[in-house]
Amino acid sequence: MHTERVRDLAHVGSVQLFTPSPEESLRFFVDCLGMSESGRRGESVYLHAWDDYERFTLKLTAAATSGIGRTYLRATGPEALKRRVAEVERAGLGRGWTEDELGLGPVFLCGDPDGHEFGLYWETERYVPPPEQRPALKNQAARFPGRGANVRRLDHINYLAADVDACSRFTAEQLCARATEQIRLDSGRVSGIWYTLSDKSYDLVYVHDWAEGRGRLHHIAFATDTREDILRAADVCLEAGIHIETGPHKHAVQQTFFLYVYEPGGNRIELCNAGARLVLAPDWELITWTEAERAKGQAWGLRTIESFHTHGTPSTP
Amino acid sequence: MHTERVRDLAHVGSVQLFTPSPEESLRFFVDCLGMSESGRRGESVYLHAWDDYERFTLKLTAAATSGIGRTYLRATGPEALKRRVAEVERAGLGRGWTEDELGLGPVFLCGDPDGHEFGLYWETERYVPPPEQRPALKNQAARFPGRGANVRRLDHINYLAADVDACSRFTAEQLCARATEQIRLDSGRVSGIWYTLSDKSYDLVYVHDWAEGRGRLHHIAFATDTREDILRAADVCLEAGIHIETGPHKHAVQQTFFLYVYEPGGNRIELCNAGARLVLAPDWELITWTEAERAKGQAWGLRTIESFHTHGTPSTP
Amino acid sequence: MHTERVRDLAHVGSVQLFTPSPEESLRFFVDCLGMSESGRRGESVYLHAWDDYERFTLKLTAAATSGIGRTYLRATGPEALKRRVAEVERAGLGRGWTEDELGLGPVFLCGDPDGHEFGLYWETERYVPPPEQRPALKNQAARFPGRGANVRRLDHINYLAADVDACSRFTAEQLCARATEQIRLDSGRVSGIWYTLSDKSYDLVYVHDWAEGRGRLHHIAFATDTREDILRAADVCLEAGIHIETGPHKHAVQQTFFLYVYEPGGNRIELCNAGARLVLAPDWELITWTEAERAKGQAWGLRTIESFHTHGTPSTP
Amino acid sequence: MHTERVRDLAHVGSVQLFTPSPEESLRFFVDCLGMSESGRRGESVYLHAWDDYERFTLKLTAAATSGIGRTYLRATGPEALKRRVAEVERAGLGRGWTEDELGLGPVFLCGDPDGHEFGLYWETERYVPPPEQRPALKNQAARFPGRGANVRRLDHINYLAADVDACSRFTAEQLCARATEQIRLDSGRVSGIWYTLSDKSYDLVYVHDWAEGRGRLHHIAFATDTREDILRAADVCLEAGIHIETGPHKHAVQQTFFLYVYEPGGNRIELCNAGARLVLAPDWELITWTEAERAKGQAWGLRTIESFHTHGTPSTP
Question: Which of A104, B27, B190, C314 has its CA at 20 to 30 Å from residue A176's CA atom?
Answer without folding.
Answer: A104
